[in-house]
Amino acid sequence: MRRLALVIAIAVALVATSCATSDTDTESNDDTVTVALASFSREKLYPPAFDPGGLVYFGPMFDFLIGANPDGSLSTDTGALESWEPNENATEWTLALREGMKWHDGKDVTSEDLEFTLQEFGSPEATCAAICATLQNNLAGVDVVDDRTVVLKLSTPDVNIPAKLGPIESSIMILPKHHVEKTGWEGFEKDPMGSGPWKFVRRQVGQSIEYEANTDYWDADRRPRFGKLDVVLAPDQNTRMAMLKSGEADMVAISPDEVPRAQDDGFQILSIENTIVSEMLFFKSYDPKEFAHQVEFRKALALAVDMDEVVKAFYPTEAGTRASGDAVPFSPSTLGHDPDLEPYPYDPEEAKRLLDEVGYDGSKVKLWTVTFPDGPEQGDVNEAIAGYWDKAGVKVEIVQAEFATLLETMGTGDFDAGPAATGFPTSNRPSVLANMEPMMLTQDAGGRFRTYWDPEKADKWYAELSQIVDEAERDARLREINNELYNEYWSIPVAMKNTTYAAGKRISGWDPISGVSKVISYETLEPAK
């Protein structure tokens, strides 16, 4: 009997909307703004070991190395770096810190902190995706030039370094060397510190984390409008909505199906648009013994689901639309987008024929369902998809799982995927490369999830693309790869999703970063007049 090991990820790709903010009132007040979320992920304060969901928890106290504008483009104005320049083949990057940055204890941010940060994110203990894998596998050294400048040296070219140093593609925040040397990372858990717009106050594990505004923050335009921030964990959506109605919370994460009811109750919907390209990915499809290694099996599962009906059922207009025909990790907002590719059709009879062709034997597929801060509807979506597969003859068992635990298991190299399926978020990263790395490459090349059926081929693609400095040339090559992946059914796109929140009367607007649902930009929440 052929063993079936299928792991599917309903994933998340990110792009945000702008909400109105005041042009003049940047002074914080003494009020506390309370935000209730569905998940805090690991609740760990060691940034190099975070998974993306953790940014909603500890991110407010840090600055990313490279910042972003509200439209999602990289910014020389909002991050720790004011410039980043490659040499002619992108094997060396000169990184320059901006002047005037201070840690929360008043000490200057210097190039020693930048060197420490790069080395820490490249250490064996670092488990974050993309940038951690890049530095672990490709860091040749960091040279400190002066108090504000370092040269990042790589063993092989990487044109995608700027994207990986920003909040959208990977997320790396500058770390305080002097403070970590004083407290150690264990002590840092109790006494964390950054340079960001919010200062840590206290936390109750499993309940909340509290911050106060950094009124001396170096970027006066992004000093918090509220004096205090309380981020509260409330996994149950009914509980979050009750908190909003009672005034216990000012903004809460809501699933797409809650949008109409929240509007009927008079709450405003604040969205980060196009944040998630939800998709199905096939773990362990690289193993020739697995059914998912065969394109016919992957195609069968794609054709078996009426994605138009799934999206219509779970995503009102404010929450999302059917994904484009691009193969994941491509989308209309990435390099390599091909507008001529059509979404996969619904053809259940052809799906059954293909299952017979590959000799599918009725083995049960475990569909691991993971809940994320920006995907509270995930379980319902998975059940709908499982229902379509069941009609086609695929036996599915839905299993609840924690992503952090699953990620750690996959990272060991001993992940036994089958017979199984799962869901986890994948950001809609404009460069594409930062998604290819963790999703498609071999483990030796930095792959974390190993969801591509031919990872050695993906390694070659990635090495080739990483040396194409000219963006137009890289875009053309990526479009060719997009078409090849589309014909391989390596993944199954589902929806282009928005991340939605309901807000009460104390909030008049919000200006989050487009393209990243995990960076909530609490400092831009605007108090009502």
TrEMBL record:
Q: Is Cytoplasm given among the entry's keywords?
A: no
- Which parts of the sequence belong to the Solute-binding protein family domain? 81-434
Q: Which SUPFAM superfamilies match?
A: Periplasmic binding protein-like II
Determine the domain of life of the protein's source.
Bacteria
Record's keyword terms, sorted: Signal
The reply on keyword Signal is yes
Pfam families in UniProt: SBP_bac_5
So which residues are the signal peptide here?
A: 1-20
What is the protein's name according to its record? Solute-binding protein family 5 domain-containing protein
Give the species: Nocardioides humi
